[in-house]
Amino acid sequence: MSVERIQQHFRDSVALHLEAVDALSLPIAAAVDAMFAALANGNKIVACGDGPSAAAAQHLAVSLVGGFERERPGLPAIALATDASHGGLTVADAAEQIFAQQVRVLGHAGDVLLVIDPSGASPRVLTAIVEAHEREMTVVALTGAAGRALEAVLSDTDIPISVPAERAARIHEVHLLTIHCLCDGIDAMLLGED
């Protein structure tokens, strides 16, 4: 691999991060407020995503439960399992219902469902959003520029955070930064600015 190709990855990532600053600051702040309000009212954060986004959902949950950058008591958060053995579903149902089944069992009114889906077209994520609405949960949706299908199922009280990019690798990078902003924002609201 050429040095120039590696450098271009860095340049592309930096350019997208700078473009996303203005586009995402307000929705991220709104998501922090919604998540903090849920936690302050004794509710929890439920996160899900497919593929690399499943790891990002786990990262969010671990950062809330175990602490982000400062010591504090753990906060109630869970990343949904991505395999059917955890949901008690038949193989036929597992493809689309794995997240929805877990939201049905674990989600309660006042909880926040954070979905992470760069394409905005994962059937598993879309059915989870529908189930969250049945449970009167707020949805925070991390997606990319192609996330029209996902944004179409969101309600007026949900919060879309749409990265202005098409390339999955770049979207994942901004999603990770967004997760860090969410965790830091919640910590700042709990513990004050440091």
How would you sum up this structure, described in words?
The protein has 194 residues and is α/β, with parallel strands linked by helices. The chain has 6 helices and 5 strands; from the N terminus they run αβαβαβαβαβα. It has helices at residues 3-40, 52-66, 91-106, 123-134, 148-152, 168-191; strands at residues 45-49, 77-79, 112-117, 138-144, 159-163. It has a 5-stranded parallel beta sheet, sandwiched between helices. β3 (112-117), α4 (123-134) and β4 (138-144) form a beta-alpha-beta unit. α2 (52-66) packs parallel to α6 and α3 runs parallel beside α4 (123-134).
Strand content: 5-15%
With strands numbered from the N-terminus, the spatial order across the biggest sheet is 2-1-3-4-5
Number of strands: 5
Total number of helices = 6
* Class of secondary structure makeup: alpha/beta
Q: Report the span from N to C terminus.
A: 42 Å
Largest sheet: 5 strands, parallel
Rg, Å, rounded: 17 Å
Uncertain residue ranges? none
Average pLDDT taken over every residue = 93
Shape: globular
Percent helix among the residues? 55-70%
The helix/strand series, from N terminus to C terminus, equals HEHEHEHEHEH
